[in-house]
Design brief:
The relative contact order is 0.19. The protein has one domain (19-109). Helix content is 37%, strand content 19%. It has a 3-stranded antiparallel sheet, covered by helices on one side. Helix 1 packs across helix 2. With 118 residues, it is an alpha+beta fold. The longest helix has 23 residues, at 87-109.
Length: 118
């Protein structure tokens, strides 16, 4: 009945971050964004954001290609144990975002032969 209200949801799943945990997660997001930028030409805009939603922290990394739709990856951790993004996840996220952004450009351009990513 209250599925789309701000007080709906699963009580007890909220994760509160300490200042150190928030700083660490921001650092991880920045690292993923930087690695994504390394894979793409300068025309692509990459950003990251850490917000607090109704269920706790929400992390997002997004890429806006020069043409085409933006792509993003995000998650809401269920516990403080899931907060850190390790090297493998960082590489996987960066490569996935870069590939998705390049695909957006390719789809928007049609049959143009110039590469969208390195």
């Amino acid at each position: 009945m209250y599925g789309n209200t701000s007080f709906a949801g699963q009580p007890g799943n909220e994760v509160d971050l300490s200042p150190d945990e928030r700083r660490a997660l921001r650092s991880d997001l920045t690292r993923v964004a930087a690695r994504t930028r390394e894979l793409l030409p300068a025309d692509f805009v990459v950003g990251s954001e850490l917000t607090t939603g109704n269920d706790g922290p929400q992390a997002m990394i997004a890429v806006q290609p020069p043409i085409g739709s933006p792509v993003s990856a995000g998650y809401t951790p269920d516990s403080t144990a899931e907060l850190r993004i390790d090297e493998g996840e960082c590489t996987e996220l960066a490569q996935g975002l870069a590939a998705s952004a390049a695909l957006q450009v390719k789809q928007a351009m049609g049959n143009n032969d110039s590469p969208a990513a390195q």
